[in-house]
Write a structure and sequence with these properties.
By secondary structure, this protein is α/β, with parallel strands linked by helices. It folds into 4 domains: 165 residues, Rossmann fold (3-Layer(aba) Sandwich), CATH 3.40.50.300; 73 residues, Helicase, Ruva Protein, domain 3; 90 residues, Zinc Finger, Delta Prime, domain 3 (Up-down Bundle); 74 residues, no CATH class. Helix content is 49%, strand content 8%. The chain is built from 19 helices and 8 strands. A 6-stranded mixed beta sheet has the order 1-3-4-5-2-6. The protein has a two-stranded parallel ribbon with strand order 7-8. Helix 6 links the parallel strand 4 and strand 5. Helix 13 packs parallel to helix 15 and helix 14 packs antiparallel against helix 17. It is elongated.
Length: 445
């Protein structure tokens, strides 16, 4: 358990001894980078700070998005006594001790306590229940940080008495802003270092939306670059690589490399080369490509180049896309890889895309005759007088569920758009389709 009463003397004493990520923590809400949806005028966090409103909040989001930072900022600005517990090593006894001390101080001199519990999802039910009286009676203002879905990891009574705020991973612009601030501000690197363009790109990619990680890597790269002399020292991509032990992936997400790699990725799957496809997947993941973009390409490819030769390929691709949204990276790389392997090894057919493209070409060319009368809507009054529905044969009344009748409009009765291959499932569909066409064309209409 740690307790902090923020003051200038304490901050000055610790200056320069803390990690860069700690030194660069925002001091006000206006200094917080990212999370714009939580920091607007009238937002719960603004009210907690500006109105000094007592409330309990859960901050749910990926690592490095600012959960601890927001709790610290709230405490700094409101001047409350700030107590931090880590759910990793705190127990019921620790929770009750904080609550008892909070009640005592409130009764003696009106000092209010902000209790911050990091990784609150690690508290068991008994430990979480110990917080309930304090939250319900507002003996403390409670902030719980979690990377896990609180609907599964937090007891309902505690969750229902608190606000749930979701934090998002920082985007590239946010990470760049954090790094630039750390390079120039006195509490950071104080202008003693600069960062090359390639070094900045590599650092942003490695951060993966994690602000704390970006500053940790920057500090390590500065140590590799060496102490500054008369002029600022430039931190290069090589320094970042050596500090983090990960090579920079030469990949421009908005340039030729982006299009070249995704093209090679798709053509490798189309060519049934799972190993090559996995290589290009790894390059995109390591370079920080948006996993949703990769998932969308998998869904398209599953129908464009596999189609009905293996209908389950589309199901796998869609499931991988859902996994990206549900669990995020880096874990979703496994789901993406599974989809890549499935699609690569599946039998190939472009019959689906050929069929829809040929049908659309006919429509665009004006080959779209009137709907046959027996297929037209016959449910409204007067439709029968127009001959709508007359002679329609209900498919379920016929053997095999196929009725002998014409469905295509005039001029298109002989058109065949879907032509299955002899690959995979389509081998069987060829026989089914031939049988169905034999029945349909026996209808004479």
């Amino acid at each position: 358990m740690s307790e902090t009463l923020f003051d200038d003397a304490g901050a000055e004493a610790a200056k320069g001894q803390e990690p860069l990520a700690v030194r660069m923590r925002p001091r006000t809400l206006d200094e917080v980078v990212g999370q714009r949806h939580l920091l607007g005028e009238g937002s719960p966090l603004r009210r907690l700070v500006e109105d000094d409103a007592p409330m309990s909040v859960f901050l749910w989001g990926p690592p490095g998005t600012g959960k601890t930072t927001l709790a610290t900022v709230v405490s700094r600005v409101t001047k409350r006594r700030f107590v931090e517990l880590s759910a990793v090593n705190a127990g019921v006894k620790d929770v009750r001790a904080v609550v008892d001390e909070a009640k005592r101080r409130m009764g003696m001199n009106g000092t209010r306590t902000l209790l911050f519990v990091d990784e609150v999802h690690r508290f068991n039910k008994t430990q979480q229940d110990a917080l309930l009286p304090a939250v319900e009676n507002r003996w403390v203002s409670f902030i719980g940080a979690t990377t896990e879905n609180p609907f599964f990891s937090v007891v309902s009574p505690l969750l229902s008495r608190s606000l749930l705020l979701s934090l998002e991973s920082l985007d590239d612009g946010d990470i760049t802003a954090l790094v630039d601030r750390a390079l120039t501000e006195e509490r950071g690197l104080d202008g003693r270092y600069t960062l090359s363009e390639q070094g900045a790109e590599h650092l942003v990619r490695l951060a993966g939306g994690d602000g704390r990680r970006s500053l940790t890597y920057l500090e390590a790269a500065a140590l590799v670059a060496g102490p500054p002399a008369a002029a600022p020292v430039e931190i290069t991509a090589d320094h970042v690589e050596r500090a983090v032990d990960r090579h920079a992936v030469r990949y421009d997400r908005s340039g030729d490399q982006h299009y070249d790699v995704i093209s090679a990725f798709i053509k490798s799957m189309r060519g049934s080369d799972a190993d090559a496809a996995l290589h290009y997947l790894a390059r995109m993941v390591e370079a920080g490509e948006d996993p949703r973009f990769i998932a969308r390409r998998l869904i398209v490819h599953a129908s464009e180049d596999v189609g009905m030769a293996d209908p389950t390929a589309l199901q796998t691709a869609v499931a991988a896309a859902q996994a990206v949204e549900f669990i995020g990276m880096p874990e979703a790389r496994i789901n993406l890889a599974q989809a890549v392997i499935h699609i690569s090894l599946a039998p190939k057919s472009n019959a689906v895309i050929t069929a829809i493209d040929e049908a659309m070409a006919d429509v665009r060319a004006g080959r779209a005759g009137p709907v046959p009368a027996h297929l037209r809507d016959a449910h409204y009054k007067g439709a029968a007088d127009l001959g709508h529905g007359k002679g329609y044969r209900y498919a379920h009344d016929y053997p095999g569920g196929v009725a002998p009748q014409r469905h295509a409009p005039d001029g298109l009765t002989e058109r065949e758009y879907y032509r299955p291959t002899r690959h995979g499932t389509e081998r069987r569909l060829t026989e089914v389709l031939d049988r169905i066409k034999g029945v349909l064309r026996g209808g004479g209409r």
